[in-house]
Amino acid sequence: MTKSAFMALFLFLANAVSAQQQFDRQELLIQTEDGKTHTFEVELALTPQERSQGLMHRESMPADHGMLFDFGESRPVSMWMKNTPLPLDMVFIQRDGTISHIYERAVPFSETIIDSRGPVAYVLELNGGRADELGIDVGDRVINKRIDAGK
């Protein structure tokens, strides 16, 4: 094997490993206005690299799972679906855990910008259609260690 072929193989394998980055997980609850509580296991996207990767290249996700993006501060946030084959609901959350906006059924692979419509500290991604299916709406409360701690 030539040196350049070996280097190309090494870079390919390094990229494959980094693309399969493991995320820390936590329990997250959503309390709806009608008193129901929905429990999810969420992966945490905390660093710029983790937030950039998000759920890209995922073809499926269990119904009771999601990903919580923590931006570390309240600010306007823009998301997109580039390289994401899984339709998603994007739940935009204020620092105190109040849902301020929900973008339902984001189109897979779309590069259309999805705007938070104001400052938020977190975005929760769920399988597309889950928010509607569970009756999750603007004004509902999200409870999680990161959100409760205000980190």
TrEMBL record:
Superkingdom field: Bacteria
Keywords on record: Signal
InterPro entries the UniProt entry points to: DUF192, Saro_0823-like_sf
Pfam short name (any one): DUF192
Signal sequence segment: 1-19
Name recorded for this polypeptide: Uncharacterized membrane protein (UPF0127 family)
Species this chain originates from: Pseudorhizobium tarimense
Phylogenetic lineage: Bacteria, Pseudomonadati, Pseudomonadota, Alphaproteobacteria, Hyphomicrobiales
